[in-house]
Amino acid sequence: xxxxxxxxVFYSVNMYNSFHNxxxxxxxSIQYICHHIGLNMYTxxxxxxxxxxxxxxxxxxxxxxxxxxxxxxxxxKKKTSNIQKLKKINSYRGLRHKLGFPxxxxxTHSNANTIKLLKGKKKVGRRYGKKSK
Length: 133
Fold this sequence. Notes:
The chain has a two-stranded antiparallel sheet. It is built from 6 helices and 2 strands. Helix 4 (73-88) crosses helix 5. The protein folds into 2 domains: 2-67, Helicase, Ruva Protein, domain 3 (Orthogonal Bundle); 77-118, CATH 4.10.910.10. Strand 1 and strand 2 (7-9) form a beta hairpin. The N and C termini lie far apart (50 Å). The chain has helices at residues 15-20, 27-37, 50-67, 73-88, 92-99, 113-118; strands at 2-4, 7-9. It is mainly α. It is elongated, with a radius of gyration of 21 Å. Helices cover 49% and strands 5% of the residues. Keywords: Mitochondrion, Ribonucleoprotein, Ribosomal protein.
């Protein structure tokens, strides 16, 4: 079992599906990583022996050091710190984040129901919860 970006990578799953679970890796970056390693992204980790897995982990480690890619917790911290900075300087987007409204110009008359539900500002009704009799 490998650990990439704080997530466990299982041997029974192919490289694409296992890397896709890591926050911050999309299809294009997975393609780039697999090309950098020199492997097909649909091969299973089971087809490698212990030395092959060690070689893959070492090349992955070197790849992430060279490209300075942030994964998992660093990306989430960066995202929350950017939102906190917007709130602190009292920008328009920061105020929208504080109030729980869409920050990038979406409609609030009909489309903000989902975000209100997720933030707990609206009670669950028939549409999202159990049907009341």
